[in-house]
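FAQ
Q: What does a multi-component entry look like?
A: The components come first, one per line:
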Amino acid sequence: MTTHTFPDRARVDALDKVRGATQYAADVAVDRMTHAMTVPSEIVKGRLVSVDVQAARAIPGVLRVLTYQDFQDVAEAVLGAVGPYSFRTYHAMLSDRLIYRGEPIALVVAETLEIAIEAAALVTATYAPDAFSPNIDAEGTEVFVPEGSISFGDFDQAFDSAAVTIEAEYNHAAQHQNPMELISTTADFRGGHLYIHEGSQSSGAIKFGVALSLGLDPERVHVMSPTVGGGFGQKNSMQQQTVLVARAAMLIGRPVKLVLPRGQIFHMATYRPVSRHRIRLGLDAAGKIVAASYDGQQQNSRAETFRGAFSETAARIYAIANYRSSEQLIRTDTQSPGFMRAPFEHPASFAFESAIDELAHAAGLDPVALRLANQAETDPVTGLPFTSRHLVECLTEGARRFGWDDRSPAIGSMQDADGLLIGYGVGVGCYKAATSPVIARLRVSADGRSRISLSGHEMGQGMRNVIVAALVARLDIDPQQLEVIIGEPDGAPQHVTAGSWGTASVVPAVEAVADEWRRKLDDLRDGRSVAGNVHQVLFRLKRPYIDAEVQVLAPGQPVAVMDRLRQSLPSAVGPQYPEFVGLSFSAHFVEVRVEPSTRRIRVSRVVSVIDCGTVMSPRTAESQVYGGVIWGIAAALREISEQDPRYGGVLNNDLADYVVPVNADIGAIDVSFVNKPDPLLNAAGVKGLGEVAMVGVAAAIANAVHHATGKRIRSLPIRIEDVL
Amino acid sequence: MQPFTYSKAATSDDVIAALTGEGVQLIAGGTTLFDLMKLGIEQPRRIVDVSGIGGLDEVTLGPNELVFGALASMTDVASSPALQENYPVLAESLLKAASQQLRNMATVGGNLLQRTRCNYFRNGAMYACNKRNPGSGCAALGGVDRGHALLGGSEACIAVYPGDWAVALTALNASVDTQSPRGLRSIPLADLYRLPGQTPDRDTELAADEMILRIRVPAASYGRASTYHKIRDRESYAFALVSAAVMLDLDGDRVRAAHIALGGVATRPWRAPQAEALLTGQTLTPARALDAGRAAFEGATAGHHNAFKIELGARAVADALMIAQQRSTGQ
Ligand SMILES: Cc1cc2nc3c(=O)[nH]c(=O)nc-3n(C[C@H](O)[C@H](O)[C@H](O)COP(=O)(O)OP(=O)(O)OC[C@H]3O[C@@H](n4cnc5c(N)ncnc54)[C@H](O)[C@@H]3O)c2cc1C
Ligand code: SF4
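Then the predicted structure of the entire assembly, as C-alpha cells:
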C-alpha cells in the first residue's frame, strides 16, 4: 500500500485568485451576449391568472419576456434524486401553478443588465391565491414517512430499566448557504449545439437535465464549470434557472446570461430545512448508554421527498445496544430544501451530542469520559467492521491539546480576569467515507504538455491541488504545462461532487491513470521502464503523445455503475460497503466566554482533531477544517433564515441581515489530524474531510454555553435573547 | 432600475440651484442611495453628485465647538487621533458602523440620512408599508419585529432609525447647518428627526431642496468620559440590536451631568432624559447605572420578538456608564 502525504504546496490557483484573475461562470462574456432578469412571484401558492408584460416589452432594448407559456413543452426532469428521495424535481415556470413565494413567473431578456432589471420591475401579474402552510407548525401541512428508519434491540425495555434517563427536543432553524459566487447561467446556442457556463457541483446533471427538458441530444449540450465560487450543496443539481436561460437563448438566437441577485437566491436555491429532533437516552448504573431513541422531523416542500437521515450517523458513534428511530417529513409551501454542508449530520450531531451532554450532566459524569466509555467497536447498525476508526484518539488528543482537565465541572464556576464567564464544551461527529466511481483520461505529449480530464468539480476545496499533487508524485511531467479538466462532461463523465467523496475518489483514479499511462509507455519499450522526464522519453521515442484511460470503482461496486456515471446519475456509495462501514470522525473542544451583563457569547477557542485517513494536502485540509469549524460557529450562534408566516419567503434575504460570521467573531482554531491511512477504502488511505469538519461543533458550543451559564439552549441559533 | 441623469456640482450653490423640480436627489458617498435605488425605494430622475465640492470635507476640533464638514468620510473622521482621545463616543459610533469599505465611501452628512432597515420596507412593494407607500398599512405590526422600535413608534410605523453616528451626536447636543433656496439655517439634531406619527414616509424635517453643509457639536471638557456601546448580532458589520451613547461630566464619583442616547430601539435617535435626571447629582455605582438604564426604557412598548431589548438595553446603558466613568478616571 502506498501511503503518502503530499508535501505542503501553495494552491495551484492561489495567485490567480488573489489577483482576481480566476474566471467564475458569471464572469464569462460571450459575443453578442444578452442579459436576463427574473420576476419573482408575489404570492406563496396558487395559480397565475395572467402576466402583463406590455410595459416591460415597451422598454427599448428589451428582446423578449418569457412566461410559462414559453415552456409548455418542457419535460420536468427528475434529476435531483438520491435513491427514491428527490430534492430538486420542481422547476418553476413550467406551468401556471405556483408553490412558493419568490419563484420566477417571467424572464426578461434585454440588451443590457440595466434594461433587464428595469423591465423586470414593470412586469405585473394577477394571481388566484390559495391558503398555504408556511412552516412545519402551520395548519395544513402533510406528513410523509419515508421507509428505512434505523432500529435495533429493544428500546422500551432498556429505557425503562435505565438508571439515568433524559428526554429532550432540539430544533434547528432554516439556513441558507451563501457562497460568494452568485448563482448564474450563461447559455449559447450555436450551430445546433448548446453551450452552458454555470458554477455547479454537477455539470453532468445540467448536461443531461437540460437535454431531457428541452428534448436535445445530450451530445449537443456542452457544460463548463471549471471553477465554482463555493457550492456547499447549493449547486449540486440542475438548478431552476438553467432550462429557462437555455430556452431563452434558443428562442432569441443569441447568448443569454442570468446572474441571480442575492435576494432571489434565498428563494430560488435549496437550503437547510427546519428540523426537530426528539431524543431519549438511558444510562445504566455502570455508565453504559443502553438505550437511545431518535424521532426526527424535517421540513420539506410539497414537491419533494428529501429525507432527514439523522440516524445514519447518530446511531453509529456509540455502542448503544437498543436504538429506535422514526422519521417524518413535514411538507410545507416553501421552496424545496436540499443538501447543505453536513446536511443531516450537523443537525443530528447538535441534537445527539447535546443530549449526551445532558446525560453526562444528569449522571454527574465527565462528558469526555462518558463518550470514551461508550465507543462503538463495530458498526452498531449493520454489525460490520469499520474500515478504520480513531475517534478515541480524536477525543484524547483533543482533550490534551485543549486542556480539558482544567475544566471545573460546576456550572458557572469558571471566570476570566475580566469577569467573563468561561464555559468548556465538547462534541464529536462522524460522516460517511463515501466513494464515487471516476473515469480519468490522461494525455502526456512529447512537447511538454499534459492534460488530465476526470470526474470532479473544483468548488474551492482544493481538488485541482490534489490532482496535480497526485499526478506529479507519480509521473515526472512538467506541472507548469499540465491542464486539469474537471467540471466538464466533455472531458470525462462527471459525478456530482458532494458528500466529501471528492478526494477519496479522485486520488486513486489519478494514480491509476498515471500507472496505466506508464504501462503503455513501457510497452513501447518492450516492458522496460526508464526513469526521467517522460516528455523527453516520448521525444526520444518519436511519439507525439500517449493517451491512457481508466475507470475506478468504489470498493465492491459492480462495473455496471459506470453506466450511471456516464449519465451523471448518482453513483457514489458509502458509508456502507459490502464488507465494511467507512466513516470519518471528528472531536471538537470549545471554549466560550460570556459577558455577565449583556451576555454576548464569544467562541474564544476551538480545538479540533479529525480522523480523515491520510491527509493528502495539508494546507487545503487544514483550511477545510477552519471553514467547517467557522460554519459550525455560524450555525450555532448566527445564521437563521427569518420567515413571516403570514407571507412565507425569507425576509432577511441579504448579507447585511442574514448574519454570517465575520473575522471578528472567530477566535483561535487549533486543527490537527490523526493522519492514519485507512487500510480498506482505497490505495491512498483517504477518507472524506469537508463535511465531518463541521459535525459536532454546534453541540460543543451549546454545551459550553450551558457550562458557562447553566442555560441549556435546545434551539439554534443561540442568540443574545436566549441567554439574557 | 429606472434611468436617471447624473451631474456633478462644484459648489453648494450649484447644488441648491439643481435641487428644483421633482425627483432630484443629491448623492454623496452613495452607499445608502444606490442601495435604495436598487431596491426600488428611491427612484430619482436626476442625481446631483456633491462629492466634488471643495471645503466641505474639513474637520475642526476647536475649543468651543467641533465642526464636521458634511462630505468628510466616516473613515477620516473615525481615524482622527484627537477625536478618538477626546471624544471616543463619536469616533466609536463611526468605527462600529458598517464595514471598512463602506466607511471609506460614506460621508458623515449622508450617514445622518440613512433609512430604516425594516425588512418589509426593503423587500418590495408587495408588503404593506406606510413609509414606502403611504396609506398602505404596516406589515411589521404583528410580524417579525425583532429589529423594530420599542420607543417612539406609532400605529402607522415602528421602524427603527438604524444609524449610530446620529445617536452619538444626539447625546452631545449636535446640530446641522443647512442651505436651501430659503437661505441658511441650523437645526438641532433633536429636531431634525421626526417621530413617525401618521406620516412615517417623512424621516426628517429636511426639505427636498435643502443640503446639509456641516455638523456642529458643542465642545466638552469631559468628552473623554464617553463611549458608544453597541450590542449587535455579530462583532462587526451589523446594525445595533441596542446601543448606548454616553458622556459623563463627573466630579469625582458624583455626576454633574449625564448625556445618554439610545440606538437600535427607537424610531429616531433617542435621548433618555429620565435616565440622565436620575443620575444628576448622584454618585455613580453599578446599581445606580442599572437604574438609569431601566429608566431609559420607561414607557417602552414591546412587540412579539423584541421585548428582550428592554433588559438588554438597560444593561447596555449601565455598562456604557461604567465604561465612561472608567475613562474619566483614566483607569
Ligand atoms: C451593508 C451596510 C451596512 C451598514 N451598517 C451601518 C451601521 O452599522 N451603522 C451605521 O450607522 N450605518 C451603517 N450603514 C449605513 C452607512 O453608514 C450609510 O450608508 C452612509 O453613512 C451614507 O453615507 P453616504 O455618503 O454614502 O450617503 P449617500 O448614499 O450618498 O446619501 C444618503 C442620503 O442622504 C442624502 N444626502 C447625502 N449627503 C447629503 C447632504 N450633505 N445634505 C443633504 N442630503 C444628503 C442623499 O440624497 C441620500 O438620500 C450601513 C450601510 C450598508 C450598505
Ligand atoms: S415599520 Fe414602518 S417601515 Fe416597517 S413596514 Fe411598518 S410602516 Fe413600513
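Q: Is there any commentary attached?
A: Sometimes. For this entry: Chain A has three domains: 18-132+194-230+235-260, 275-433+578-723, 436-566.
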